[in-house]
Structure formats: C-alpha cells, structure tokens
Amino acid sequence: MPAGMVLKSDGFASNIFDSSGDYPLSRFCAERSIPYDDERLPVQLQTFVEYGVAFQDRFVSGLEEKHVESVRQDSGGFVLTLDDGAFVRARRVVVAVGIGHFRYLPAALGGLPPQFVSHSYDHHDLSPVVGNRVAVVGGGASAIDLAGLLHECGCDVQLICRCDALKFASPPTSGERSLWRRLRYPRSGLGPGLKSRLCTDAPLLFHFMPETLRLEFVRRHLGPAAGWPMKDKVIGRVPVQSGYEVASAAISDSCVTLEMRRRNGESTVARFDHIIAATGYRVDVRRLDFLDQSLLSRLAHVYQTPILSARFESSVQGLFFVGPIAANSFGPLLRFAFGAQFASRRVMSALERPPYATSRRPKSFKRLARGAHAATAP
Fold first, then answer.
1. Which residues contact 249 (CB under 8 A, 6 or more apart)?
2. Rounded to 5, what percent of the chain is helix, strand, coil?
3. Is residue 42 part of a domain?
4. Are 136 and 232 within one domain?
5. 44, 269, 326, 350: least surrounded by Cβ within 10 Å?
6. Is 331 within the bounds of a domain?
7. Does residue 131 sit within a domain?
8. In this structure, are 42 and 111 located in the same domain?
9. Which domain holds residue 43?
C-alpha cells in the first residue's frame, strides 16, 4: 500500500493478535496520542505500520529477518536453505507468506514490458508514475484506492472496471444502532452482516461443510468493494470506464494502446503511459517456488490450494499453511488480519503435541486428500 492510504478494516478489526490481548491497536494509539475509534475513524497506513513495528519490539524483539531460498523434506523433518547459505532444520514448518506470491495479471496485459505494466502490489511508492497518463484496471479496494490517491497527486488517471458501478462499504452510522439493525447486520471483523459474522464465529463449521459449498462461498462472499472513506475521493473526481474488460494491449510510440470491450461487444481504444493492474490475487501453491518440487508433488490440493486439517496441517506431515492460502479450508476470515487469532490458536494446538501426533488425522481427511491429489496434482 502506498503512503497516504487508509486500511479498509475497522480499528477493532485491525489488531495484531497476542494471546493475552494486552496490546490492541487502541492501546498503541492511546500511548502515542493518535486519534482512534473502533469504527468511525479509518486507520491510517502509517499508524498500522508503526503499530506493527511496536508489536514486534514488544513480543519478538529478537526476530531475525532471513530470506528462505528452499524448503525440502528429509527423514528428520524439513531442511530450510537461507539466502546466506545457512541451513535450518525443523520438524514443522508454518507457511505464512501472505499474498505477494499470488499476484494476478490478466492475459491481455501479461506480455507487456514491466516499464509499461505493473501490479498494484508493487506500488509502495507512486512517484515513478506520477505525471503520466495512467490506467488503473480493477474494481476493488486496491484499484479504487490507487486511482483516488493518484488523482490527489495530480496524475491523469482513469479507472477501468468490469463492474457496472463501483461499490463502497457503508459509512458508520451516528449514534446507537437500533436492535433490528444490530440483529440483521451484526458487527464482525469482516464487516457487518450475518454471513460475515458466521465466517468469524464459526470457521470450523465452515471447514466441515461440503467442498463445493465452501469453494463457492469463498468465491462469492465479500466481492470487490472499497472502504467508505474513498467514495468522496473518487466519485465525481476520477474518470471511470465501467462495464469494460481489457481486450488487448500493445506498445506503440512509447505508449500502451489499450482496447477495452463491453459484454455486448462494444469497444473503445485509449492510450496511456502506464497500466496498473489492480486485478487481485489467485492462490496457486505452485507459485511458492521455495517449496521443493518433490514436496509439492505430495501436497494434496483442490484448485491449487492445499487441503488442510482442522489444525491447518497439510497432507505433508508437519507442513502447515495459514493466511489467504487457507481460505478455501476455513473461509474468508483467513484473508484478514482478524483471522490470526483463530489460525494461531489452532496451529499452536498442533505444535504443542508430539510431532508424530500431528499425523493422526481422521480417515475421512486422508481419503479426501488422496482423492484430490490424484485428480489435481500439479
């Protein structure tokens, strides 16, 4: 996220989890005299970054930052090769890589050189594109936020999206909500609503739902939408090409000629200096290039996402996955920081057991894992 942005999640849903609950975002803000409200004040990016650093200093001050080049399995567990040539042996490995590996670029943009196209994930600094004619492709929070921020920087920017209209979260209501609205739209760490509340309160129930139902729910729930503070920064300020998909893109005269097409076949052409693809992420375990191929070949998965036990363990004994890569197993909760409490407690319940005990999974899980592996092996 570039400087100047705000988090989409509410303040109460932006806590970094610790088991004692001693250091929520609200306490950090109080200590630093930073304005804070559970719902009515958006969390500034810089505030959250500083909170993360303070949290690390408080709980894991001895943390070493190393780049893992490879993870392979041997008879004693796993061997990790680090970028400095060192080796680390471990009986268990928890993969918590976030979303960076899973950036999705539409095929129409995939062949363009990097000086003409980039992914929204790469834009921690917008200065290289400020002053250019920029197209932001996408209709979700990243696309809308980037377009609004670029416009504030004086950039000639257009937003191109497939949806017919941009969607924004509803702003918090002033005063106390009625009983009916509290029942109909209960508060949750993923936003208001019964479905979101079910996701946060019953992820294990979600885990044991039929696979087809889980996958469809993850695909449909919490679709593209921006936070409520962005509406005034974009609507009426940023030109929006709604209902268009990128059909093709080509370089000519040091510019990108972009052909956009509606569902009815109507098309239009525009020229830009740079394209930012805010087109989201598609989890594919094969893109975790640090995992050894022999390990990947034994990893049971569905649609390239690992099948996980109720404690986040994969079909490879001792290998755990948390974060967005676990969403198909436990629901949309795992796409958010709010899901860290559930995930860490479930993983810790496995790590506290003897290593051999983590392999004692229900036969139904083993049977499902074998079937999925045979059907969709990478």
1. 108, 109, 111, 112, 117, 256, 257, 258, 259, 275
2. 35, 20, 45
3. yes
4. yes
5. 269
6. no
7. yes
8. no
9. 11-59
Q: Which amino acid is at 344?
A: S
User: Are 122 and 257 contained in the same domain?
Assistant: yes
Domain boundary among 43, 59, 75: 59
| 120 and 49 inside one domain | no
Element (H, E) at 200: helix 194-201
**264 and 161 belong to one structural domain:** yes
Tell which residue, 94, 177, 151, has the closest CA to residue 346: 94
DSSP 111: T
Evaluate the CA torsion angle 265, 266, 272, 278 in order and state its sign: negative
pLDDT tens sequence for the chain (378 residues): 888 889 989 999 999 999 899 999 999 999 999 999 999 999 999 999 999 999 999 999 988 889 999 999 988 899 999 999 999 999 999 999 999 999 999 999 988 999 999 999 999 889 889 889 999 999 999 999 999 999 999 999 999 999 999 999 888 877 788 888 888 889 899 988 999 999 999 999 999 999 999 999 998 898 889 999 999 999 999 999 999 999 999 999 999 999 999 988 899 999 999 999 999 999 999 999 999 999 999 999 999 999 999 999 999 999 999 999 999 999 999 999 999 999 999 999 999 988 765 445 545 455 445 445 433 433
Look-up: residue for tokens 């070949």? 297
∠ Cα 306 8 203 (to 5°): 35
Residues 118, 2: contact at Cβ < 8 Å?
no
Phi (first) and psi of residue 55, to 5 degrees: -65, -45
